[in-house]
Design goal:
With 317 residues, the protein is α/β, with parallel strands linked by helices. 43% of the residues lie in helices and 21% in strands. It has ten helices and twelve strands. A five-stranded mixed β-sheet has the order 4-3-5-12-6. It has a three-stranded antiparallel β-sheet with strand order 10-7-11. It has a two-stranded antiparallel sheet with strand order 1-2. Strand 1 and strand 2 form a beta hairpin. The longest helix is centred in the N-terminal third of the chain and has 25 residues, at 64-88. The protein is globular and about 70 Å long.
C-alpha cells in the first residue's frame, strides 16, 4: 500500500462540518454543494480505511478513528492557514482593538492570538475584557474593532454581527457538590425526589452585577416555576462568582463554556431546578468591511471557539 497523503480541502470539509454541527451548513460555508462535501467525506473514509462517523439518534458522532483524525486535521489546517496568512500578510501593520467577555479569555485567546501573532507579527492587539454591556457600548463609541460576547436577545445576524454558536444555559455549583451539606441544596434534592411540600428555603443565586441579562432570565425562570429565590452574592468579576459558587454560597448560571475546575454543571435529574434557555455567542465587527487583520482575527476566534465546544453535543449530518 502506497503512502497516503490527506487532501487539505477534504480535511477542511470534515473539520468544518463537525464544527458547525452539519455538513449542509459546512457546504454553504465552504461554497460547495452538499453532495460534493459528502463525496469528500466518503473519500476521506476510504483513504482512512475505517468509518469516521456513526449514527447517534437523529445526528452523527465521531468514531474513535474520527476523533483521532480530527485532532490531526486541526493541526494540519492550522499550519496550512498560518503559512498562507504569513506569506500573504507579512506586510500587515497597525492594531486590532479586541473585546471579549471574561469566560472567553482563557479558553479562546491563547490559541487564536498565538496563531495570529505568528502570521502577523507587525500587528498590535489591544484587548479589552469586560461584560457584554460594556463591550456593546465601546463598539458603539468606536473604541473597539471587534468583540465577542454572549447575546441573550440576538434573533438575527446583520452585516456587522455573526452568530458563532448557541449553547444552553446551565445551573452551576461547586465541583464537590456531592459533599455539599448546605440546607438549600439538601432541600432541592429532597423535593426533587418527590417529598411532600414545596421549597421552604429560597434558592440562593450567585450573579453578575447589574445590568446583566442573565439575572432576569434566571429569576423569571424560577418565578414561572413558582420557586422562591434570593441573591446571595453579586460581583462584576467572573472569577469572584466562581469562587463564591465553589464555596457553596449558591448557584450560578452560565454556559458550559470555559468552566474552571472548581465548579461543575448540575444535572437537573433528582432536583426541581427548571430548564434554562439557550443563548448566542455573537461576534460583532465595528465595520461591515473590516481591515484584513480584523477579519483574520475574527476567523481565528470563531475557529477556536467552535473547536473548544466540539464533541460536547451530537450534530446533524
Amino acid at each position: 500500500m502506497g503512502q497516503i497523503t490527506y487532501d487539505i480541502d477534504m480535511l477542511r470539509s470534515f473539520s468544518t462540518g463537525i464544527a458547525l454541527g452539519s455538513y449542509a451548513r459546512a457546504a454553504d460555508r465552504l461554497g460547495r454543494s452538499t453532495s460534493a462535501v459528502s463525496a469528500q467525506l466518503k473519500k476521506l473514509e476510504s483513504q482512512s480505511g475505517t468509518p469516521l462517523l456513526r449514527k447517534s439518534g437523529r445526528g452523527l458522532e465521531l468514531t474513535d478513528a474520527g476523533e483521532t483524525l480530527l485532532a490531526y486535521a486541526h493541526r494540519l489546517l492550522a499550519l496550512n492557514d498560518e503559512a498562507v496568512a504569513a506569506v500573504r500578510g507579512t506586510d500587515l501593520q497597525g492594531r486590532v482593538r479586541l473585546g471579549l467577555q471574561e469566560d472567553l479569555g482563557e479558553a479562546v485567546l491563547p490559541e487564536a492570538l498565538g496563531r495570529f501573532a505568528r502570521a502577523h507579527p507587525k500587528v498590535r492587539i489591544e484587548a479589552c475584557v469586560a461584560t457584554s454591556a460594556v463591550l456593546r457600548e465601546r463598539l458603539a463609541l468606536g473604541q473597539l474593532d471587534l468583540a465577542m460576547f454572549w447575546d441573550v436577545g440576538l434573533g438575527a445576524t446583520d452585516q456587522h454581527t455573526a452568530s458563532v454558536l448557541r449553547l444552553p444555559l446551565q445551573w452551576i455549583g461547586p465541583a464537590d457538590l456531592d459533599a455539599l451539606d448546605a440546607p438549600w441544596w439538601q432541600q432541592l434534592q429532597k423535593v426533587g425526589r418527590g417529598a411532600q411540600g414545596g421549597l421552604q428555603e429560597p434558592i440562593p443565586l450567585v450573579v453578575v452585577d447589574a445590568p446583566c441579562p442573565l439575572r432576569e432570565i434566571v429569576t423569571t425562570t424560577l418565578e414561572r416555576a413558582g420557586m422562591p429565590w434570593r441573591y446571595v452574592f453579586t460581583s462584576s468579576s467572573l472569577a469572584a462568582l466562581w469562587a463564591a459558587t465553589s464555596a457553596g454560597l449558591g448557584l450560578c448560571v452560565r454556559t458550559p463554556f470555559g468552566l474552571p475546575a472548581h465548579v461543575r454543571t448540575i444535572e437537573r435529574a433528582g432536583t426541581v431546578l427548571p430548564a434554562l434557555p439557550q443563548i448566542t455567542l455573537a461576534l460583532r465587527r465595528a465595520s461591515s468591511e473590516p481591515e484584513p487583520s480584523v477579519q483574520r482575527l475574527a476567523e481565528l476566534l470563531t475557529e477556536s471557539v467552535q473547536q473548544n465546544v466540539r464533541g460536547r453535543f451530537a450534530f446533524a449530518g
